[in-house]
Amino acid sequence: MLELPSQQAVFRYSTSANKRPESQYPMSQGPYLGLPTIGNGMTGIVFKLEESRVVKKAKQYLPGSLPDPAHVEYINQINQQTLENEIQVFKRLGSHEGIIHCLLTQV
User: Fold this and answer.
1) Which residues, 6+ apart, have CB-to-CB distance to 59 below 8 Å?
2) Per-residue exposure over 63-91, b if at least 16 CB sit within 10 Å of its own CB, e if not
3) Pair 27, 61: CB distance under 8 Å
4) Residue 86 vs residues 19, 92, 93, 94: alpha-carbon distances, Å
5) Confidence at residue 84, expressed as pLDDT on a 0 to 100 scale
6) Which of 1, 19, 59, 77 has its CA 20 to 30 A from that of 106?
7) pLDDT in tens, 40-99
8) Contact at 8 Å (CB) between 27 and 60?
9) CA torsion 70→5→31→59, rounded to 10°?
10) What are the C-alpha distances in Å from 90 to residues 13, 61, 80, 94?
11) Contact residues for 6 (Cβ-Cβ < 8 A; gap 6+)
12) Has residue 26 got a pLDDT over 50?
């Protein structure tokens, strides 16, 4: 079974994503370094694992990466909570045609 670091969710998807250079996406680090980045939102980044699987990671800013250091911890907590809320939505929706399937979560 695939083990994920904290604050992750693995999804199955079937839509083709627009490819962008990885340099456009911040924080491509950790266990996903080198994986194609297919999405970059306000609170998370989506990495391609396989042809029909992706992992979504909550954005986590490093100390000193924002103008106000006091904001880093707060923003990281909000990003994590947003992913946790999204995971709960997928669990409540269950499996339905037209909704991507959440295979595994870890927060």
Assistant:
1) 26, 27, 43, 44, 45, 75, 76, 79
2) eeeeeeeeebeebbeebbebbeebbeebe
3) yes
4) 24, 10, 11, 12
5) 92
6) 19
7) 999 999 999 888 888 889 988 888 888 888 888 899 999 999 999 998 998 888 888 888
8) yes
9) -30
10) 13, 25, 16, 6
11) 106, 107
12) no
Give residue for tokens 């923003």: 75
Token couple for 76: 């990281």
Q: Which of 60, 55, 59 is nearest to 104 (CA)?
A: 55
Place of tokens 């927060």: 107
